[in-house]
Amino acid sequence: MPTQRKRATIKEVAARSGVSVATVSNVLQNKSHLYSPETAERVWQVVRELGYRPSSVARSLIRQRTDTIGVVLEERQNVVLDPYVMAVLEGILEYTVPRNFPVKIISLLYQQEPDSFLAHLDDGSVDGVLLIAPRTHSRALQWAQQSDVPAVVVGSTVPDTPLTCVDVDDTSAVHRAVQWLIDLGHGRIGHVAGPQTQWSARRRLRAYQRAMQEAGIEPRPEWVAEGQYTPPSGKAAMEHLLCRAPELTAVVCGNDWMAMGVIEAVYQKGLRIPDDISLVGFDDIDSAQWFTPPLTTIRQPMRHIGIKGAELLLEQMEGGRRGREVTLFPAELVIRQSVSEPKR
Asked: Do 145 and 233 reside in the same domain of the chain?
């Protein structure tokens, strides 16, 4: 019968790392002001080698904390299907798991009562909250703004809020993409917008409109259709555009997932991409390069947004809630085969 492996202790981690037990404890608690980056790297290396796991129960009792992070998903976000949510969540876990901060997923998708999720936030089970792309009238966002629990918004830049936000500079990115299409010769450009209950969708729509107007092109109302950041809604929106505005030679989508539906609508109409209609997406999800044709899109660092959001939240959990801070990552236009000069 195999012998049970003895659990490593914090004293063993300290001895092998060449530091004190207090220093190991500070590294595990992410008190970065008390040690150097080199020390942290050495300690984490030993932690991985020994498979050390501090007792979460004992730590919670001593510190009167759970060190658990709540990740709040809105009612339309499906963590399994939505590639954006999955990428951001991957970044969150990449940062929190090695530091022994458990993550509690709080999804509004299956909540029967609109406010029932508050019980999962107010029951003392989480010491900090990450809100992934909250909507404009989000109850979770309202709760976070009024609560003393540290909270960070990821995937959205919410105006008029005291909360720290981590997002992509989508305004500049969409403006740049539309201007690039105009420089290629496209003057009749449509936009499949995301749901206007999302701050990101509102910003991207305004950026599209501003780029067109600055080029002396007044975007017509029939050149814009709203989707829900999903493939079926993208298809429906594009069918609407093809019916009301057949003159369009290019379309900019609010995200890649809707662009998938747009491609289906174009092909069902007997048209071709990019010969008849050029197409630009947003996100650069993993499958974008495998679309037919490969999708020109705006790449945003979704995983890094999750990492940064988790980092800032842990800093708040250790040092206390602080004033609003906004971190915007730059975006990159990735040119593939879904765009060409207009043929008509």
From this structure: no
C-beta of residue 316 within 8 angstroms of C-beta of residue 128: yes
Helices (H), the chain: 10-17, 21-28, 37-50, 56-63, 83-96, 118-122, 139-146, 170-184, 199-214, 231-244, 256-268, 302-319
Locate tokens 């490593």: which residue? 8
Distance CA 272, CA 263 (A): 9
- Determine the structural domain holding residue 38 and report its residue range: 10-54
Assigned domain for 336 exists = no
pTM for this predicted structure: 0.80
In a domain, 81, yes or no: yes
* pLDDT, one tens digit for every residue, the chain (344 residues): 444 456 778 888 899 999 998 888 888 777 777 889 889 899 989 988 887 766 544 454 444 567 889 999 876 556 667 899 999 999 999 999 998 899 998 887 665 565 666 666 766 778 899 999 998 888 889 889 888 889 999 999 999 889 999 999 999 999 999 999 999 999 999 999 999 999 999 999 999 999 999 999 999 999 999 999 999 999 999 999 999 999 999 999 999 999 999 999 999 999 999 999 999 999 999 999 999 999 999 999 999 999 999 999 999 988 766 678 999 999 999 999 999 999 87
